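worker-3 :: picked NAD-dependent epimerase/dehydratase domain-containing protein
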Amino acid sequence: MSPALSPPANHPTLRVHFATNIFLQADVIAPAVTGTLNVLKACKEAKVKRVVVVSSVAAVFNNPNWPKGKAFTEDSWSEEQYCRKNEDWYFLSKTLAELEAFAYAAKTGLDIVTICPSLVIGPLMQPTVNTSVKVFLGYIKGDQETVQNGFKNLVDVRDVADALLLAYENPQASGRYLCSSSPIRVSDIVNILKTSYPTHTYPKNFVEVEGSYTYNTEKLRKLGWTTKPMEETLRDSIECYQGLGLWAS
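worker-3 :: tokens ->
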């Protein structure tokens, strides 16, 4: 982000998505944190009333001290030293950037709210495929006959957009908000898709695994947030991916 980046002076509320590129190296951290602070400083100078930052559950779940089996809430933060030890640089970059955002808010009085989505899927507006969609397609493409049948935390990009609107329009909104649909097993995703796309090649065997994450989204739902049925999200996603040549019918 450029230090000279400035929002429109007549725009009292700004939604900003600080999407960090995923590389297995520590140099993602400085750009994420510095870029976030540059935008926030520009917002402060422009007298923006509220900034809604899109963070990630990556800043939530990498916490070895969280009670095992308990759904994550906004109180959980990915643990910095644990991220460093395991070289989870993407998780660390999202965590530090969000922490710095709240530190800046405390120092300057800028009203900041963060949204922490899980794996975002759904129709794409751009012609290029993003990392989240690549990860999702990796679950369901038949490149491997056998895959792990863990629970996956997905969220429709349109539901994330709704969360952003709620976060900046509701004057009572504050702090962090987890943003995820109910977890779903890979086998259930495949079975849903088979009804509409029966000729596609899917994984054939599923190995049951334990230890998946769940997220408590009650705080966001209290703002009026709802999610689309997963069947609708999957259908609309695949229709889009087919059109982009990412999914063969």
